[in-house]
């Protein structure tokens, strides 16, 4: 067969704050001969769906800045978690037609990357939920919510949890787990639409932090036994001011700091004055302990509809740049997935 | 007997940054008749020595700002931990001549305050260490270092600990405990004199953060398994950047934030990216669990000289304001004690 189109997303420029569509990432229309491309012991993948996650912004940095996540190189095709189908394979355990999950280059077709913290894995046939859901509530986002909550919340019925970005892909899972444990849930998000969604999934006190003073809400509805931290900045400061003595803060992300926005916290002294415990975690950190239980106990709840979820699916690989920007600005509703191709 | 002099220290004005001697606190020369003053079931105390601690700055705030520490009222005599001798008593368990430890008003003589988190207690006769040492290495400071380290460090031989304010009353205790456990100790402080003292007590890498870049030192000498946090601000940011994955931060104080100095942290994302655990604590929180062990196992090490300590003793109650300012600015060397009277 002759070469076919292969749209690829390149990292073009380090953003100073929010990523700019068409500038931070650029789309190139390249070609690939899927019959003859060298595999070198690996496999050729056709990308089906890509997960657009907040942490990807942390890879768009100067390469000399150390972090747990490697930096994208300018001029390199970016990569992130996604689902693909194997087109050809020289790799043991992977055969043409297998659906796989792992770190994928943002290309329509590519030879699989070397394995990393998230090795490429073959998904079982007949997933109980859609590809997009497997990338959200059944993947990194849902898994982060499930595993972080299980490991660190140590929740007791009747306690109060405050979840930031409670309408988001991770937050909405934490909200629903907390409700199942009999907790009172305070949730914040940045639009009236998200407030409505928070109420739909059971948040007891749902508010729009852009129009309501977070500190006032927490002062009235707190103290907070558990704070699920996704944003940092002023929200963290308000939470610190309203934590219960011996409270727990679970740090899943500090999204407000990813895009060059600086904030000077005033209430860090609450950490010792209230004897708080703060636990940060990465999905990859807890996955070895919880993956089996997550797929066994939690994903079926998604399949039956007992756990609600929400996706914002954008079609076309060339939409990655826009999707990233929408997510970083909080303009999305639900888990952001770029749908690249049908199976 | 006719009334005698009773110097008293009043809270005069809420400071906007560092407390100003003669303005934040003012000295009044009052009188008291120690033979006739009403005790109302309490006891009359003659103050011997007062502990000047960093946290006292947190009490010098607007009264509407909630905190675990009550705010001083403007126009009120301030109070803090100290040692006194009982002059007269109507209270069971306290008799004239007993030496007591607890929250004392900053007055030469006063009727004991109602009991609080730190109830007044009678000290056993024949203390193994001096009154001043009992207020420092054998009191709140040493106890905070000992208890916080024992509860949260979970140190393993060969690990690296970074101690901020390592020449201070708390930090110097943590340094020496860590050395006894076979740790490699990095210590920071703000003068060459303090660097010399850090070396004297066993700090392996001692540096002056005012003349050396903390981040550069930690990048070279880290990663840090355990960070003992006394200061916050840029030091915390540098520590976050150089923590080991799964590292522990023990928050004893964030002194840089007490005096109106604001700092926007850039590295809070390390909390989740490195799966860090942060534990804040108060002495009063851990004291029920550790007090017996502290006096049994640790204070004797002070008495024999196996644990070194350093005090800056200022004579005269009217020196409290200056002593507070020196401490907040880090101009002191060693535990700050105001010596009010001999026994």
UniProtKB/TrEMBL annotation, chains A, B:
Residues 43-338 form the Enoyl reductase (ER) domain. Keywords: Oxidoreductase. SMART domains: PKS_ER. This is NAD(P)-binding protein. Signal peptide: none annotated. It comes from the Eukaryota. GO terms for molecular function: oxidoreductase activity, acting on the CH-CH group of donors, NAD or NADP as acceptor.
């Amino acid at each position: 067969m002759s070469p076919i189109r292969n749209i690829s997303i390149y990292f073009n420029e380090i953003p100073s704050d929010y990523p700019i569509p068409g500038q931070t990432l650029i789309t190139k229309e390249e070609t690939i001969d899927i019959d003859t491309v060298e595999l070198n012991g690996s496999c050729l993948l056709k990308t089906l769906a890509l997960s657009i996650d907040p942490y990807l912004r942390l890879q768009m940095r100067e390469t000399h800045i150390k972090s747990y996540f490697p930096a994208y190189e300018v001029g390199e095709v970016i990569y992130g978690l996604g689902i693909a189908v194997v087109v050809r394979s020289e790799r043991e355990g992977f055969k043409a037609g297998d659906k796989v999950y792992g770190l994928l280059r943002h290309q329509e077709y590519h030879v699989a990357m070397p394995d990393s913290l998230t090795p490429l894995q073959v998904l079982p046939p007949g997933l109980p939920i859609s590809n997009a859901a497997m990338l959200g509530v059944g993947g990194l986002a849902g898994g982060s919510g499930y595993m972080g909550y299980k490991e660190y919340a140590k929740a007791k019925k009747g306690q109060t949890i405050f979840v930031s970005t409670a309408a988001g892909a991770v937050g909405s899972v934490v909200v629903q787990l907390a409700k199942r444990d009999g907790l009172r849930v305070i949730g914040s998000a940045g639009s009236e639409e998200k407030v409505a969604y928070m109420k739909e999934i059971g948040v007891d006190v749902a508010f729009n932090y852009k129009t309501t003073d977070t500190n006032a809400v927490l002062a009235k509805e707190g103290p907070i036994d558990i704070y699920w931290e996704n944003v940092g900045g002023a929200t963290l400061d308000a939470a610190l001011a309203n934590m219960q003595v011996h409270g727990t803060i679970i740090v899943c992300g500090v999204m407000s700091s990813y895009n060059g926005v600086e904030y000077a916290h005033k209430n860090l002294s609450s950490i010792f004055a209230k004897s708080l415990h703060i636990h940060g975690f990465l999905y990859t950190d807890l996955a070895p302990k919880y993956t089996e239980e997550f797929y066994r106990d939690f994903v079926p709840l998604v399949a039956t509809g007992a756990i609600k979820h929400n996706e914002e699916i954008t079609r076309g690989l060339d939409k990655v740049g826009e999707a990233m920007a929408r997510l970083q600005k909080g303009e999305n509703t639900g888990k952001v997935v770029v749908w690249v191709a049908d199976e």
